[in-house]
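This section describes the prediction task in plain terms. A model, or a person checking by hand, is given the sequence of a single protein chain and must write out its three-dimensional structure as a string of tokens. No templates, partner chains or ligands are provided. The sample shown here is typical of the held-out split.
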Amino acid sequence: MTRILLSGCCGKMGRFVAETVKNRKDCEIVAGIDIIDDSTLGFPVFANYDEVDVKADVIIDFSNISLLPALLSYAEKTKTAVVLATTGLSDEQIKAVEATSKTVPVFFSYNMSLGVSLICELSKVAAKVLGTGFDVEIVEAHHNQKLDAPSGTAIMLGNAIKEEMPDAYFEYDRHSKREKRHTNEIGIHAIRGGTIVGEHQVIFAGNDEIVTLSHSARSRAIFANGAVNAAVFLKDKDNGVYNMSDLVNE
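The expected answer:
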């Protein structure tokens, strides 16, 4: 049985995680962390990490990135594994996560969906086969409440492609330029509107043919399920950074 400490338990994703765990027998939520205390969740809710007096195996974090230092400090102090599902981390914050992974196992992915993990792998194959003869563009769309742009998933897809195209670079802003597209560009475009859960397209545009890989998230439940799977996977793992590829290939 994997004992979970759920950070951001009263937020939208936190509630999806809580509901997902209710239907499983291999894990349980022993406590949550949130500034809101909702007694209907069925487990104790603490306002911050200093107040937590319950032992957990894994932290699932769907909170605000401002809480990252407190999260990592608590994980290191208590030797608690971490599933980090919060998006929008800076390069400096990612380095802090990597430093923590030397002390405890950390599962870090820009997207917890199994389908997105597959699209990443397929994008790498497409980049290897099609090469620089095809222009690469990534288009992502999310709801109007999302804070970061482009999405972490779009960056993850782009990084996967760059593994096969090491000279490629991201192009976020063409409107300020008046010049032809460069061969090594990976264009990344963000759309925000309505209640779109998450849409991603990877377009390989060549001479007279276009190859498009796409993923459509219809519910946040898929991300909650992925995070819970990651928590169960992470229990008793060695220190280090893990991702969806590790989970899928275990």
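For orientation: The helical segments are 12-22, 68-78, 91-100, 114-130, 152-162, 221-234, 244-249.
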